Amino acid sequence: MAGIARSNKTFCEFFAGIGLVREGLAGSGWSCAYANDVDPKKQQLYEGRFGAEGHFHLGDVWNTPEVLARITGRPFLATASFPCVDLSLAGHGRGFEGSHSSTFFGFVQLLEALADRRPRVVLLENVSGFVTSSGGKDFEAAARSLADLGYWLDAFMLDAGWFLPQSRPRVFVVGVRDGLDRPLAARRSPSDWIADDWTRRIEAADRRVRPPKLVDRMKAIDLATGWTAFDVPVPRRKPPHVAELIDLGDDPSWWDAAAVTKHHDMMSDRHRERVDAMVESGETFVGTIYRRKRAGATRAEVRFDGVAGCLRTPRGGSGKQIVVAVDRGVLRMRWMSAREYARLQGAPTFPLAANTIQNLFGFGDAVCVPVIQWIDEHVLSPVFAGAHEDGDAESPRAERGRQPDARTAPQDHAGGEGQEHVA
């Protein structure tokens, strides 16, 4: 069999947004063959960074024939950062019954239609609520739909806060087609459960990467293929303090005294006392504020632990993050800038649009670049390299016939079975 050419290290980026998945993959040689989104303002930012090369498709992923016509050849990887709104608190528990997050199945429909051009690897990204949405049924439905297309699955959590000063936990699901090298695998059923190397590896892993709620969910789902377990470590390097990414120079965007006093008064007694003590010290401190509803009142919740809150889209005043700085006895506040959003997402030099809100929506809805780089380093590029070394199993028949590391459960086995932050 002919080896996979390096030029075939191609991927399709679904729900691409402004392109931060592409930003994370570019450094290791991945080439984007197709990108898709429905938001023209995000397209503008995407093309401002990567150019109007013609592969960005502004269109609905549900329009399968239109998407198929734009994908040439067989991409090795497909990524899907599908909408999170129905899986998060903002979605009021709609889950896959909601019109936004259910577009995941438009992606699945497209994978099915690609047939023998189906990517060998898929990567999903979403909020941690994806695991528990609808009592876990949404995660199960997504996992089963990919397994039914021939993908062996792994799932893990990563937090942007391990790389940059932004709290942003996300769940990732990797699917690898039969025929590609993968680590320890198990075909498991809740009613036919046996101890195996997969179980031992999953349970011995860092609980930050594989939290119990996720591991339990994986164990409970019987897939047509099975589960696999990649070695995804927690980075050892310490992220920078948020102050290193914030501009403290004189700028007209700093609020006037009335606005600062208003937000100072909106703090809880504990937060206000902490801030006042910082002002009295005469030293310099940098933190962030989110406005939240607490017991019917709007509170300015402050954190000085060196980490920004999770960036969000600026829907209403509570969606925008505030910079708070105590600078030699002076209390200052302002809205966090688009450039600071870009830095916190790991894209410090990303070209910005003229419209600030457009930028905040783009970055608030995106994935953190170094997180994607970490997954690429430990999962995606190694899988590609293994395929390149071992040869290309192009046909579905060849892929199905190669399962050297699968463990199948015996058929006759009778088994049974919201915080405040001040530092």
UniProtKB/TrEMBL annotation:
Active site, renumbered: 84
EC number: 2.1.1.37
Ranges of Basic and acidic residues composition bias in the record: 387-405, 414-423
Family to which the UniProt record says this protein belongs: Belongs to the class I-like SAM-binding methyltransferase superfamily. C5-methyltransferase family.
Protein name: DNA (cytosine-5-)-methyltransferase
Top-level enzyme category: transferase
GO molecular-function terms, A-Z: DNA (cytosine-5-)-methyltransferase activity
Record region (Disordered): 387-423
Domain of life: Bacteria
InterPro entries in UniProt: C5-MTase, C5_MeTfrase, SAM-dependent_MTases_sf
Organism: Paludisphaera borealis
Keyword Cell wall biogenesis/degradation carried by entry: no
